Acetoin dehydrogenase dihydrolipoyllysine-residue acetyltransferase subunit
Amino acid sequence: MARPILMPQVGQDLTEGKVTAILVKVGDKVKKGDIVAEVESEKAVFEVECFETGTIIDIAYKVGDMAVVLEPLMMVGEEGEVYEKAAAQAPAVAPPAVVEVAAPAVLATKSVPAQVEALAPATALAVGGGSSPLARRLAVQAGIDITSVAGSGPRGAVVKRDIEAFQKNAPKGSVLAFTGASRGVAAKAGDSVIKSLQAGTGDPVLFIHGFGSELSSWRPFVSQLGIANTVLAVDLPAHGAAATGSAGDFDAIVQSVRSAMAAEGLERVHLVGHSLGAAVAAAIAGGGDLDVRSLTLIAPAGLGPRINGDFVSGFLSSSSEPALKAWLDLLVADPAKLPGVLVRATLSAREAGPVVENQARLAAGVFAGCTQLFSVREALARYEGPARIIVGQQDRIVPADHAEAAPAQVAVNRLPGVGHLPQLEAAPLVGRLVAQTIRSAG
């Protein structure tokens, strides 16, 4: 069975990297620990390590291409296996260009105006070392002519810090003025942070991740949706871009996300959540004060009392790759479907600040041993819009039978042979189900 070698995310704000070397070819045998490619970010060149053993059966990029983080660089399978990209993986609608905004920069929730979009192809300065992909993207979203920014990167390249410094110190009139393309939000340290994963039209879709994850985990899934809507994602307190903060209980988590939504003017929105994030989505939808167009809950917490407390404590206490992998394997029915790069990415995220301490503080406020300290059953019952629950029947974190508590008006899809990560284990199917729920809102 084909397994991916993903483009790693080696920094919180890294969204893509340039492929500078492909060290294998289709048909080559590889094993765990082999270096298969080199990728260049704005800061360094780093090696891509193989976490699988088998034969290279597909290479998605060539040298010089820009690879998107957490998307497959290549596929590993069995000798003689032919890899065919499933038609179901291709979006029915060609996805608009991804727009990434690193807080506290401006957030694009509408399509970028033509006069600003025209700046996007500027890949090099007239004099100097060009600009990084992230710097170019931030410049487009902020309405900055990147040719007017002095670079401090290698060979004078414009990098992220240069754009940020320009925004802070730019004289009046040096930034293009436009309306409706972005909103400036200065988030406080530790607050939930919203970023854009796809520019589009219509009512935005907001994704909310689960405990121990971060918003970038949704990136590979977005291509499964085949929708033209703007797609946003939020980092919960103690996670991702909000890793420096925490929350004392479930209500505080919900309030943090609601505050981030209010700061972005998100009053009419589709909500999609996973696990703890699904419970947050249900609580917001059931509040009745926002126009939540549709609600999709994937492996939701908050519908019953049980939680795998051993997983939570084991996940938080693991400080090595083998130990962490032993616990992360519980997330999926088939451990072979868990990309090895996710283990390293999780450990890497813990190296920057008190991530584990803040997540442990948050966990203590929502879980007690094997018990969930909150419920969203009543909130879900109050929600009258299109709603769907998707659960894996082999979920070893939140029991699948908790979905039996769902109100009669909520559709429930039970997926055999799937664990706690349906959006990873059955991505094409789950993508179709999420898109159907969104489209059913009209």
About this structure: The chain has three domains: 3-80, 114-169, 193-439. The longest helix spans residues 250-263.
